[in-house]
Amino acid sequence: MPITDDDIRLLRDAAPEAEALGRLAPVQLELIERRGWWRLLAPRALGGAELALPQAVRLEQAIAEADGSCGWVVTLCAGAGWFAGFLAPALAREVVATPGMCLAGSGAATGVAERTANGWRIEGRWGHATGAPHATHFSFNAVLQQDGRALRDASGAPRVRAFIVPAAGVRVLETWQAIGLRASASHAFEIHGLTVPDSHAFDIDPAAATQPGALYRFPFGALAYATLAANLGGMARSFLRQATPLVLERPVGPAREPLGARPQVRAQLQTVMQTLEAARGHCLALLDAAWDHVERDAGPVDEEPLRQASLAWARAAREAVDGVYPLCGLGAADPRTALNRAWRDLHTATQHALLL
């Protein structure tokens, strides 16, 4: 499901409306649904696309390059849709078949799940759920309790499990006020006294997968790092695409000569782009190799090289933008411009905890 030029134009053109709304624009949502992006990583047997991860990462970069908020929402919500490969099959089928299916959620274990006779009673508040206004379901982590006391694993640490619940049982709190990714609507949410059956708890582990595809044997950590880095890479490309002609044509000095007449400026632009693309190429090469390894069922994947390459790609994206921004002029500081939006989106995305 490659992104088309028409898709890119639609996402770019709708970005100002989405930012003003504080959520994705209706035309963007219609495109996401029509192209099946919510179900990008959901099991094929249940109606999802189950796209090979290297293809999904490249697609997510392209969406983020078109519009940072849209890329971020698709990436995190489709990433939550991947959890369908770990749910009890009947529940997974029900979730994926939901009209407009969109999963939002949080990886923070800031809630508790109290054991009941037939399931769990959920209480808690989670700080950020990208795409919250569009969600049909929410996923989250919670600390397990019984009789008001935390359940503990063999090492003595509190036990934590992932849960999924329908959006009807969730209260969204409109807390998202970041300078960038404004249309991602990454609001807080809370749950009070919601009881769910055992089937709504699940474990994100290849050994616990309920679907047979390679996608559900791929380690979650490596998937998360690669998809986030791809978003930053896309946002940086967007910024540089817009900034380069502005920098080259910007008149400076008494003679009002364009900055592009200075060899060092041209060299700087070339260097940041080459560095960014080299980091991208290295990360994607490692991702392709890891995917091949999992497809061949060749044993556990060494996640660390891909994690480091993802962090290097994200770092290269930030450094590329920060290196060119001072050359752009005041237009880059105007929040009404697409260039400034790309700058704000990227610097907001860099605050994700995995990218520290």
From TrEMBL:
Residues 228-354 form the Acyl-CoA dehydrogenase C-terminal domain. Keywords: Oxidoreductase. It comes from the Bacteria. The keyword GTP-binding does not apply. GO terms for molecular function: flavin adenine dinucleotide binding; oxidoreductase activity, acting on the CH-CH group of donors. This is Acyl-CoA dehydrogenase. It comes from Azohydromonas caseinilytica.
